[in-house]
Amino acid sequence: MKSVALVFTSRKKALTLLRSSVDRFEDDDGSSDLWAECDSEDTIEAVGEALGRYYRVTRVEGDEHAYQRLRKLRPDLVFNIAEGFRGPNRESHIPIICEMLGLAYTGSDALTLSICLNKARTKEILGYHQFPTARFRVIAPGAATAALNSFALPALVKPLHEGSSIGIRNGSLVRTRPELLARVRAVQRRYHQPALVEEFLPGREFSVGVLGNAPAYEVLPPVEINHRALPKGANHVYGFEAKWLWDNPAKPLPILICPARISARLAKRIRDLVCRALEILGVRDWCRVDLRLDASGNPHLLELNPLPGILPAPSDNSALPAAARAAGYSYQELILEVAKHALRRKTRTQSL
Ligand SMILES: Nc1ncnc2c1ncn2[C@@H]1O[C@H](COP(=O)(O)OP(=O)(O)O)[C@@H](O)[C@H]1O
Ligand SMILES: [Mg+2]
Question: Which atom of ligand 1 is nearest the CA belonging to 199?
Answer without folding.
Answer: 1
